[in-house]
Amino acid sequence: MTTRAFITGAGGQVGVDLIAALRERGCEVHGSDIADRPSTVDASVRWHKVDVTDAAAVRRAIQSARPDVVYHLAAILSSGGEEKPQLCYLVNQTGTWNVLEACREEKVPRVAFASTIAAFGPGLPDPVPNEVPMRPRTMYGVTKVAGELLGEYYTARGWTDFRSVRFPGLISAGKPGQGTSDYALYMYTDGIKFGRYEAFCRPDSKIPFMYMPDAIDGLIGVAEAPRERLGKRCTYNIQGFSPLASEFAEVVAAAVPGVKITFKPVEWRQAILDSWPRSLDDTVARADWDWCPKYGLDAMTKDIIPKIREKLARGEL
Ligand code: AKB
């Protein structure tokens, strides 16, 4: 049977690649977003223009799609969330509640949720284990912890089967959306496009990152894992690689001749980065559902540069 998937925030950086991956696997995909369908998303993907803060609209869209799984991605990211904390609360907290309630009411069997390293706060061991006290310093992090806990609650009540992965900073040949990890992605995209990029962080900043194909594998992997293997657990750390910002700059400079990467830290964004883990311990995900990323920094760099050049040539970046 073809799996029917419904994606919130489908027009974002993760959403467009998730759509392509699910379609390649033969799934029927419904995309939803507050924005119109991006020009890069195939017209055969049914598009629901929905604001996740509108509970009735979310329910109507999910009712009409009748999905087997909802991938809930819609969110305001960390830097955007610190600029507009009230909006961040509304989209991330109320939006997640609306999506979970619609899934309960429409009996959607599974929900897969994009959580984040931002759910953690400072002062934790390195690497950060799967289960630790969650004391995030950003509104984005607070709402993501609440999303994880709400999902666990819905699962315990038998209202849906919720799973989530804590994503590191994600890098793809795509447009990011006001994250604090975006300095790494911009070193590649602006480095290639303009020949220079001024990063808003210190060169010794260090947080976990992941190449998008691994992130998509992780999200689909946790969504499709048999519940018997997960036990009662709903949320998983997944780790990619953790270079210093200066190491990113060196790798980009080696791969893109003539590029100039400089650093001019922005205090409030640097404080966010300093409050996040330097790396995650993902042994639980490896044991429970065979999580195994394919890309390190060098393999990603080799793969992404031609993709960025192609997208630039098509005017898509
Ligand atoms: C952000 O920077 O806000 C996101 C994240 C790490 O979740 N990319």
Notes on the protein architecture:
There is one protein chain. With 317 residues, this protein is an alpha/beta fold. The protein has two domains: 4-168 and 212-237, NAD(P)-binding Rossmann-like Domain (Rossmann fold, 3-Layer(aba) Sandwich), CATH 3.40.50; 171-207 and 240-277 and 295-313, Alpha-Beta Complex (UDP-galactose 4-epimerase, domain 1), CATH 3.90.25.10. Helix content is 44%, strand content 16%. It has helices at 13-24, 55-65, 78-83, 85-105, 139-156, 182-194, 212-224, 227-230, 245-255, 267-274, 283-289, 297-313; strands at residues 4-8, 28-33, 46-49, 69-72, 110-116, 161-167, 169-171, 196-199, 209-211, 235-237, 260-263. A seven-stranded parallel sheet has the order 3-2-1-4-5-6-10, sandwiched between helices. Strands 7-9 form a two-stranded parallel ribbon. A two-stranded parallel ribbon has the order 8-11. Helix 1 packs across helix 7, helix 4 (85-105) runs parallel beside helix 5 (139-156) and helix 9 crosses helix 12. The chain is globular. The protein starts with a strand and ends with a helix. The model has no long low-confidence stretch (mean pLDDT 97). The chain binds 2-amino-3-ketobutyric acid (AKB). The site of 2-amino-3-ketobutyric acid has 12 residues, from strand 7.
